[in-house]
Structures are given as C-alpha cells and as structure tokens.
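fyi for ur records
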Amino acid sequence: MEGENSLRNLHSKKKQAKNNSFRFLKYSNLAFQMGILIFLGAYAGKYLDGLLELELPLCTALLSLLGLGVAFYIFFKDLARENKK
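which gave:
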C-alpha cells in the first residue's frame, strides 16, 4: 500500500515537472514573439518614414506601438485560453 502511494507521488511529481517545463518554453516563446512583432513594427515604420521623408519618426512610433498592441493581444488571448483549461 505504501509503495503504491509513493509511486503515485513520484508519477505526480514527474508530471508536474514536465508541465512546468512546458509552461516555461511556452512563455519564453511568447516573449520571443513579442520582440519580433515590435521589431517588425519599428522596421516597417522606419522604412515608411524614409519613404515619406518625414521629419519626425511618426510611422516608426505608431507601428512600434501597433506591434506592441498585437503582442499584448496575443499574450492575453493565450492567458485567457490557459485559464479556461
């Protein structure tokens, strides 16, 4: 009886460790996605500022903020999906 409980505890601990490592990978990937979205927004904005010959980097600022907004939208959508489970 006692051996059976210790096996269950061991299995439960392994499952929890696997779940924690999965979450770590998932959220580190999300941070990587956020960085890419912000970078792409800034790069596209810089390109448009050069194309339109704007004195102020308005497109860079706006598209960077848009990339940030999209990144947060993805983050909160994923977080809401995780809470439903």
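The chain has a mean pLDDT of 84. thats all i got for now
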